[in-house]
Amino acid sequence: MGDKEADHGLHDLYRTYSGWLTARLRRRFGDETEDLAQEAWIRAAPYSRKGLIEHPKALLLKIVDNLVIDRARRRGPRSLQNGDKLASDSPVDLASQIDMMLLKQIVMTMPPRLQEVFVLSRFAHLEYQEISERLNIPVTTVQWRMIKALEYCAAQLRL
What we know:
By secondary structure, this protein is mainly α. The chain has helices at 3-29, 33-50, 56-75, 94-109, 112-122, 128-135, 139-158.
């Protein structure tokens, strides 16, 4: 794919999803929205050049999640100040609740062997080697089940 074709692909992607991404980020991040969106598009550009984007929304959200994690790591831990509130005191984000319910439904309907690996990887944050040892299965089986679990999630989201 040539540079002009890749740039055109990124332009089409931006034109199609920029409004959606900005609205989605504004609900979660408020004032940081524009910076996060801009950085997300910069990080998405190489994928566009290689023609590797199958699920643009998922890719953009994953990039933003990684950006937020990176920022939090750079800031390091901080203690609560007098004016700070705990997360439970903040207004509930309805869209996030709906996303969490959808994810929970998808995971709960997943075949048990796939579900087990998916939960240990995505929620318990275990490495494939650790999952392999815990479940007493080869790492290649963990990898295969994770691929199948992600395919299952993608198929459920397309319904």
